[in-house]
Amino acid sequence: MTNSSSLISILQTIHDCDSSSISTIRTLVFKAFSSPDIFCGFDQIKAAVQPALTSAPDGDAILRTLDLFSYGTYKDASNMQQTLTDAQLLKLRMLTVVSLVERACLEAHGIVPYSTVAQELSLEVDTLESNRQIEELMIACIYAGIINGKLCQKTRSLVLSSTDGPPCRPRDVQNVSSMLKSLKVIQQNLISTATSMELEKINVEKRREVHTEFLKRAKEASASGRSTRAAGIPRGRSAAASSSMRRQAGKRSRGGPSGGEAFMRT
After folding, report:
1. Ramachandran category for residue 236: left, alpha or beta (phi over 0 → left; psi -120 to 50 → alpha)
2. Neighbour order of strands in the sheet with 111-113
3. Which pick of 53, 74, 132, 265 has the fewest CB atoms within 10 Å?
């Protein structure tokens, strides 16, 4: 983790320097680049040295390098005119790992695969040599206190156990704003999902009531059919039989004896 006293000491020295002391300011800036105790605050250093370096021959390159250490990654160093030392390149690799950790925290999965780190550091993916370099770099980050996690060789990834990291930088405000927008979208999706589930619950209850009523009527119809068969009337023909009996009874009451019986009496 950044030693605040080291950063404050450099900032105080810069403020005490005369604006014409370009060489002293340049030395202090490169000291911050190489210091193993400083991993953030480069934007503050830039704000302090910008008035003095604006007119310097290499002032623009130094200011862009400060932006690189504030916001950039190892890949961005290839586009820089400023030549970096091995110690400065190591720090930039470590800051690249920090950026990947921040991204993993924002995406809420808490895992940084070796393959992702290898791509950001322009290494071959999933080779013994690249995995060894990545693990050494991550161990250096853990011992420096800028990330908190455990290496998993089985999954070839860094599993985060804490989101503690460097103090908030100006670019982090944009990240927070983006994260809040994402959370708002997630909230709206959850509300929509909850509403859909409530409507589906109501529909399920209605279908259950309809099904229950159907089973009740089917049971009543089945019981009615059993009682009809028990009375000796064939099921489905009771109405027809009753109608035939009524017609026969009507003929006898209206016509009296049949025609044959009347002829025999005469």
Report:
1. left
2. 111-113, 157-162, 148-152
3. 265
Q: Is the pLDDT of residue 31 over 70?
A: yes
Q: Dihedral angle at the C-alpha atoms of 33, 35, 40, 41, nearest 10 degrees?
A: -70
Tell me the β-bridge partners of 148: 162
Could you tell me the CA-to-CA distances from 93 to 103, 107, 108, 141, 171 in Å, in that order?
15, 21, 23, 10, 19
Output 2 or 168, whichever has higher pLDDT. 2
Contact present, 77 and 91 (Cβ < 8 Å)? no
Residues 100 and 191: their CA atoms lie apart, in Å, by 31
pLDDT for 263 equals 41
| Rounded-to-integer distance, Cα 73 and Cα 97, Å | 9
What's the pLDDT tens digit per position in 208-252? 998 888 888 888 888 777 666 665 555 444 445 555 555 555 555
DSSP H or E run through 72: none
What whole-number distance in Å separates Cα of residue 40 and Cα of residue 66? 10
- 237, two tokens: 């023909």
Q: Which secondary structure element, helix H or strand E, spans residue 266, and what is its range?
A: none
Q: Measure the CA–CA gap between 141 and 119, rounded to whole angstroms.
A: 18
Helices (H), 35-85: 42-53, 59-71
Six token digits for residue 185: 């979208």
Residues forming a β-bridge with 229? none
Query: How wide is the angle at C-alpha 73 spanned by C-alphas 57 and 163, nearest 5°?
Result: 130
Q: Determine the Cα–Cα distance for residues 101 and 95; give it in Å rounded to an integer.
A: 10
Q: How far apart are CA 149 and CA 139, in angstroms?
A: 9
> What value does the mean pLDDT take over residues 110-117?
91
